[in-house]
Specification:
Elements (H helix, E strand, L loop, with lengths): L1 E5 L14 E6 L15 E5 L5 H6 L2 E3 L8 H14 L5 H15 L4
Antiparallel strand pairs: 1-3, 1-4, 2-3
Length: 108
């Protein structure tokens, strides 16, 4: 599954590629999408990866790579972050780990 976000307009006829489109979820652009760090009008799930030309033509934003990690890869990256924690102060450490946990748990 390949996920993209429409950040400029709601998804609709002519606003996104239809080949391979599996699901469209309407979003409230005022709500922050964790993968983007900003709002989006729609989440678009495809059975195929869109071409760079399609992404550009329809002004879509691919979902962040981090949310496509396997659970094992997410656990490994969390351990790496924990090992780097001694170089951070306590507040940075707690904020960083909490942010990572929230991102890794995202069902998107």
């Amino acid at each position: 599954m390949f996920t993209y976000f429409s950040t400029h307009r709601p998804a609709g006829p002519g606003a996104c590629p239809v080949a391979g489109l599996v699901n469209v979820t309407a979003l409230d652009p005022a709500d922050v999408v964790p993968q983007l760090g900003r709002g989006a009008w729609s989440r678009l799930d495809y059975s195929r990866q869109l071409t760079p030309e399609e992404v550009q033509r329809y002004e879509l934003t691919p979902a962040a790579v981090a949310v496509m990690l396997t659970p094992a890869a997410a656990a490994l990256l969390r351990r790496i972050l924990e090992e780097a924690a001694p170089d951070m102060n306590d507040a940075d450490n707690e904020n960083g780990l909490a942010a990572w946990d929230a991102l890794a748990a995202c069902p998107c």
